[in-house]
C-alpha cells in the first residue's frame, strides 16, 4: 500500500490535479483515472500549476490487503483515511465530500453554515436547509439565470464583516432533479455516480468560477429557507428573524469553534437581511418567484 504523505505530492505528477476554488485550494491525486477525468470536466477553469501550504490534500487509492482478496478503494484527506467506497462509481462523490469534510475541519477562520450561496448586484442570497430541501436545484436554476455562484454546500462567513466568501464547488444534483436541470441547458455530468443515502447523483460544473473568485466578499441580503413540495405553486412567506436565527443555529457547522459568539453573529447576520420561507415547486416558476420577491424587496428598501 502506498503510504506517501499527501504533503509530498509531486507537482509534476500526472495523477495530480491542483485546484483553486475561491478561498480554498485543493490538491487531488488519484489512482482511479475516472476521478481525474471528472475533475478536468468539472473544474478545468480552476486548474493551477501548484497550490499553497494551506491547501487541502485528497488522495483516491486502489488498495488490496492480500494478494487473494478483492481490491477496494480508499479516500484519504490530509494524510488520514476518511472513506472506503465499495464501488468504483462511489469514489468521485467521496473525493468531493472529502474536500467538504476537510473544509469543515480546517477552515475555522470562517463561520460555516450549511447553505448554498449566490450573488447578484453585490448582494448575497443564502439558501439554507437540510438535505432534500431543494437548495442545490434552486441554486442551479439561479446560476443558469446569471447569478454568480459561490457555493452549493457552504456559506463561509467572515466573522468580522459577515460577508460571504466564494467556494465554487460543483453542484451535486439528485436523480429526481436531472430533467429539470437539463431543461436549463446546464451541463450535467453523470457517470452512474452513487452517494450513500442520496442514491444516483450527477454534477454540474460551476459557471464562471474565476468570476466568483474575483468577486469581492458580499454581505448577505437575503436568507431563504426552501422546501420542495411536489406540484406546489411556489410562494415566499416572511419569516421572523428570531425563527431564522434558530434555523441557522441548527445549520452552523462549526458551532464548537465559535461557541458563545455564534448566536450574536447570527443575530447580526439576519438583522441586515430579509428572511423568507420558500415553498418551491417547478424550478422555473420557483426562480421567477424568488427573483420577483427580490425585486419587490429592493424597491421597498429603496423607497423607504
Describe the overall structure:
The protein is an alpha+beta fold. It has two domains: 101 residues, no CATH class; 193 residues. Helix content is 31%, strand content 32%. The chain contains nine helices and 16 strands. Strands 1-2-3-4-5 form a five-stranded mixed beta sheet, with helices on one face. It has a five-stranded mixed barrel with strand order 6-7-14-10-9. Strands 11-13-12 form a three-stranded antiparallel beta sheet. Strand 12 and strand 13 form a beta hairpin. Helix 3 crosses helix 9 and helix 6 packs across helix 8. The longest helix is centred in the last third of the chain and has 21 residues.
Brief write-up:
With 304 residues, the protein is of the alpha+beta class. It has helices at 33-43, 91-106, 135-144, 178-183, 209-214, 241-250, 255-258, 262-271, 283-303; strands spanning 16-21, 24-30, 56-63, 72-77, 80-83, 111-120, 123-128, 148-151, 154-157, 163-165, 171-174, 189-195, 199-204, 218-228, 235-238, 274-280.
Spatial strand order of the main sheet: 1-2-3-4-5
Rg, alpha carbons = 20 Å
The backbone outline, from C-alpha atoms, is globular
- Report the span from N to C terminus: 66 Å
The description of the largest β-sheet is: 5 strands, mixed
The low-confidence parts are 1-11
Q: What's the helical proportion of residues?
A: 25-40%
Mean pLDDT: 88
Structural class: alpha+beta
**Total individual domains:** 2
Percentage of residues in strands: 25-35%
Amino acid at each position: 500500500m502506498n503510504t506517501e504523505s499527501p504533503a509530498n505530492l509531486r507537482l509534476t505528477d500526472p495523477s495530480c490535479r491542483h485546484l483553486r476554488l475561491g478561498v480554498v485550494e485543493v490538491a487531488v491525486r488519484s489512482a482511479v483515472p475516472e476521478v481525474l477525468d471528472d475533475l478536468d470536466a468539472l473544474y478545468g477553469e480552476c486548474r493551477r500549476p501548484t497550490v499553497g501550504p494551506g491547501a487541502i490534500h485528497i488522495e483516491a487509492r486502489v488498495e488490496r490487503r492480500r494478494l487473494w482478496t478483492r481490491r477496494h478503494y480508499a479516500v484519504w484527506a490530509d494524510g488520514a483515511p476518511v472513506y472506503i467506497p465499495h464501488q468504483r462509481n462511489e469514489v468521485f462523490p467521496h473525493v468531493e465530500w472529502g474536500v467538504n469534510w476537510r473544509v469543515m475541519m480546517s477552515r475555522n477562520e470562517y463561520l460555516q453554515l450549511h447553505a448554498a450561496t449566490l450573488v447578484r448586484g453585490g448582494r448575497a442570497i443564502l439558501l439554507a436547509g437540510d438535505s432534500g430541501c431543494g437548495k442545490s436545484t434552486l441554486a442551479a436554476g439561479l446560476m443558469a439565470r446569471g447569478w454568480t455562484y459561490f457555493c452549493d454546500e457552504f456559506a463561509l462567513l467572515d466573522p468580522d464583516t459577515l460577508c460571504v466568501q466564494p467556494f465554487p464547488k460543483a453542484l451535486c444534483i439528485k436523480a429526481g432533479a436531472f430533467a429539470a436541470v437539463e431543461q436549463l441547458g446546464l451541463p450535467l455530468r453523470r457517470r452512474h455516480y452513487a452517494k450513500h443515502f442520496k442514491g444516483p447523483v450527477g454534477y454540474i460544473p460551476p459557471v464562471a468560477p474565476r468570476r466568483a473568485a474575483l468577486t469581492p466578499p458580499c454581505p448577505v441580503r437575503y436568507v431563504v429557507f426552501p422546501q420542495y413540495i411536489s406540484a406546489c405553486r411556489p410562494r415566499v412567506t416572511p419569516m421572523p428573524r428570531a425563527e431564522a436565527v434558530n434555523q441557522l443555529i441548527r445549520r452552523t457547522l462549526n458551532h464548537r469553534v465559535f461557541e458563545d459568539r455564534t448566536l450574536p453573529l447570527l443575530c447580526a447576520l439576519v438583522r441586515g437581511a430579509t428572511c423568507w420561507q420558500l415553498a418551491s415547486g417547478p424550478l422555473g416558476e420557483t426562480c421567477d418567484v424568488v427573483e420577483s420577491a427580490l425585486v419587490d424587496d429592493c424597491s421597498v428598501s429603496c423607497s423607504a
